[in-house]
Amino acid sequence: MIATALEILKTVYGYDAFRGPQARIVAHVIGGDNAFVLMPTGGGKSLCYQIPAIARPGMGLVVSPLLALMADQVAALRQAGVRAAALNSDLPADERRALWRDIHGGSLDLLYVAPETLLRQAVLERLGQTRLSLIAIDEAHCLSQWGHDFRPSYRQLDALVGLFPDTPRMALTATADEPTRAEILSHLDIAETDAFIAGFDRPNIRYTIEEKDNPRAQLKDFLKRHKGESGIVYCLSKRKTEETAAWLRDQGYDALAYHAGMDRAAREANQMRFQHGEAVVMVATIAFGMGIDKPDVRFVAHIDLPGSIEAYYQETGRAGRDGLPSDALMLYGYEDIALRSRFIEQSDTPDPRKRMERQKLDALLGLAETAGCRRQVLLSYFGDDCEPCGNCDTCAEPPRLFDGTIAAQKALSCVYRTGERFGQAYIVDVLLGVENDRIAQFGHNRVSTFGIGTEHDNRTWRAILRQLIALRLVDVDLAGHGGLSITPAGRDFLRDKPTLMLRVPAAPRARRQKVARS
Ligand code: ADP
Ligand code: ZN
């Protein structure tokens, strides 16, 4: 009798139910279809190929990049009574011969192999004489040339498509961004309709994104709500982590710094204090992350803009591993956007890569400026989705919108009239008709847009410009000087003047509370 997927789940793994999309994926592959599986680490990808391999006739071939990972998986499977083995190049000759006998004799459910070994002519030929139930390519993002884990041998796995055209192919990864995903699908010839993406939601994390107005006051206010709890404050620079930690200690917090410039012993000591402490605030650069294994991190604050949505997701994801309510705050302002843009422009990466980095920054700004549910924007970036969550700042207090068509036209005209090379603060001053030396020096107190924006205050204009950047009507810093310029879409907007709804900037939290109290 052929066991059903659910029976295998219960008898082999001892679990009662599939999690998330596992059941759908397993059924899909048992039915003979290809699958692309995108799930965060720990989401349960292994079952998605192991169960179909056990259920289908033939042997499942699993391509995995690391010998150590393979050894762990094989040991765990054997323990559970599954006939699994790893084919690696340093097996002694007699074990190797015995393994091939098992393979050809049809007595294996799963064979793990590294791509370099698999792609040897002799290995491929011998596997060609074997009945395969499926081919699973784990850590499939290793085939992406843009990724950090690029492995040239992974790239050659596309040969399998032609060699085993009738065997279901699976690609599995936790690395989510859209270009990588598209590259994997096209390279392994897996259809968009065979993609399964889920498990990214962290419902216990509450997301809040605020304009960086007075960052120290905002941070202090945030930490007040987390007295006696541990959390992480991320900063961009080493110096800022030191300064912020010192300042927090002055405020009575048990705050520590962590960055790559500290010597190893000091770093490890701080990590230990954080790990075992009760109410420790770790003020860190992104160097702090690997190996944090603290279930009760109650908050993560970004007082500078993170590098991308993936980075934000990963960094905020260190909060609330225990499933209890946790808080994520991000502060961001125009300076952050200009700085990030400058990083990208001035790096010596090739142009296609720069374009991709810019797209990632744009996506992050889209999250920061959305009037909709933050969680929906975050999950949709990973191809996952949810209902409006009720557990983010925009759900709790939906931003008010106004017809910003005229304001956008004024702002764009002002960027244009001043030569598309000045930053946000300057443009806002010209719109408000501020008389200062710099504006006089450039003669911009005589342009037609000088003082045409007095109906809004400085704060609103800044919010308008940020939204125009997030909407890709305005570009920051293409030449590396922090200046704003008009994009082709911005030119279309000036010509067609479609209605544009913009969000009214929220009042700073501190002020809101005062208003509420009075
Ligand atoms: P990934 O490969 O996506 O990082 P794993 O496949 O290693 O994740 O699974 C992560 C953990 O979740 C493992 O301990 C696994 O046994 C467990 N797990 C997976 N699926 C289920 C399930 N349906 N029910 C309970 N536990 C599960
Ligand atoms: Zn929400």
What does this structure look like?
It holds the Pfam family DEAD. Its cofactor is Zn(2+); Mg(2+). GO terms for molecular function: 3'-5' DNA helicase activity; ATP binding; DNA binding; four-way junction helicase activity; hydrolase activity; metal ion binding. This protein has 518 residues and is of the alpha/beta class. The protein has 24 helices and 17 strands. The strands form 4 sheets. It has a 7-stranded parallel beta sheet with strand order 3-4-2-5-6-1-7, with helices on both faces. A 6-stranded parallel beta sheet has the order 8-13-12-9-11-10, sandwiched between helices. A two-stranded antiparallel ribbon has the order 14-17. Helix 13 links the parallel strand 10 (254-258) and strand 11 (280-284). The relative contact order is 0.08. The mean pLDDT is 92. The structure holds adenosine-5'-diphosphate and zinc ion.
First and last CA, distance: 74 Å
Q: Give the strand order, joined by hyphens, for the main sheet.
A: 3-4-2-5-6-1-7
Structural class based on helices, strands and sheet pairing: alpha/beta
Biggest beta-sheet profile = 7 strands, parallel
Low-confidence stretches: none
| Number of separate strands | 17
Number of helices: 24
Instruction: Report the oligomer.
Output: single chain
Cofactors, ions, other ligands: adenosine-5'-diphosphate, zinc ion
Estimate the helix proportion, in percent: 40-55%
